[in-house]
Amino acid sequence: MPIDCLAHLADPAQAPRVVLKVGSALLVGEDGQPRRDWLRALATEIAAASARGQQVVVVSSGAIALGAARLGLGQGGRGSLADAQAAAAVGQIGLAGLWSEVLGAHGLPAAQLLLTLDDLEDRRRYLNAAATLGRLLKAGAVPVINENDSVATAEIRFGDNDRLAARVAQAAVASAVVLLSDVDGLYDRDPRAAGARLLPRVEGVTPEIHAMASDRSGSGLGSGGMTSKLQAAEIATRAGIALAIVNGTQPAPLARAFGEAIGTLFLPVRRDGARKAWLGGRLRLKGALIVDDGCAAALRRGGSLLASGITEVEGEFARGDAVAVRSQCGQALAQGLAEYASAEVARIRGRRTEEHGSLLGYAPRSAVIHRDQLVLL
């Protein structure tokens, strides 16, 4: 039976493995000190989930905020990349210690994993991370994961832990992701506006759903907003993973959300295979291929991407790089691994397959992106 309500997220039969994301503003006070009482209460809920047979993976922000307070850095440690990296290096020690303390009080060992974007974008490193997560969970540990901000730069960053949580859920083969927020869930407009309505369930993140979101991170401590949470929902639900946004500022936030059905649940829209789920969740794309309407229709029917339907090539990429596929009006259609470098695609775009050999000087491949290496969005 698929997950179709918030109560299912507390049921080990429906959600045997859950990823829980905790943001900086929930874990760290405005004074830069950890909110220990709140964290102890959350650890009690995690222990309760473990006792009823669920495995929990925690994706925790807070290292930069904790480290900035310890080092006396302004702007919460986000005044510069150097400040953020230094704050993270100091804060990670404190963050790991906090989780070890509060989980250890319930007999649960905490394990720390620090990841960069490359760790989950590269297929081999992704599988290594997945294997580590699986072994830790089997051993009864609670993995506590954060982005490795002490070494990450703009080119290799997730930028927010919402999307990291969705990618970790894929690697951990989780049933659900729970994002703790400072609001009850997704509203049809700014929740401060008169008449704003909480959406209890969402089936598919459409452009209309995106239009309801805000990029604002109200605390000033975090890096995400509702937009990043919707992007996380897209990644998770395409992989067959449910995602919930619930209010983490409340006492016992999980019991409140699941018991009183307060929050927004994004239902899985499909269940891609493991490789296609990894590919569909990739965040860093090296270029883009613009295709005509006929090609777009063929892709939706399950076809490969042929050169004859390509009208434009954007960016520079090599064979095997991940690229976006967009319609001529800019709609994101798919992404996949290119069989040709960008310069080669530029030579054969719009041309029939029988012409490719003379244009390239070698026997052509069957497609620019084979359907086995392509996932629709």
Structural features:
377 residues, alpha/beta, 8-stranded mixed sheet, 2 domains, Carbamate kinase, globular, Archaeosine Trna-guanine Transglycosylase, Chain: A, domain 4, 5-stranded mixed sheet
Structure description:
- By secondary structure, this protein is α/β, with parallel strands linked by helices.
- The protein folds into two domains: 6-278, Carbamate kinase (3-Layer(aba) Sandwich), CATH 3.40.1160; 285-376, Roll (Archaeosine Trna-guanine Transglycosylase, Chain: A, domain 4).
- It is built from 14 helices and 13 strands.
- It has helices at residues 24-27, 36-51, 63-71, 81-104, 117-121, 123-138, 161-172, 207-210, 226-238, 253-260, 274-280, 293-300, 342-348, 356-360; strands spanning 17-22, 55-60, 110-115, 142-147, 176-181, 201-202, 242-247, 264-266, 287-291, 310-315, 322-327, 332-337, 374-376.
- The strands form two sheets. It has an eight-stranded mixed β-sheet, with helices on both faces. It has a five-stranded mixed β-sheet with strand order 10-9-11-12-13, sandwiched between helices.
- Strand 11 (322-327) and strand 12 form a beta hairpin.
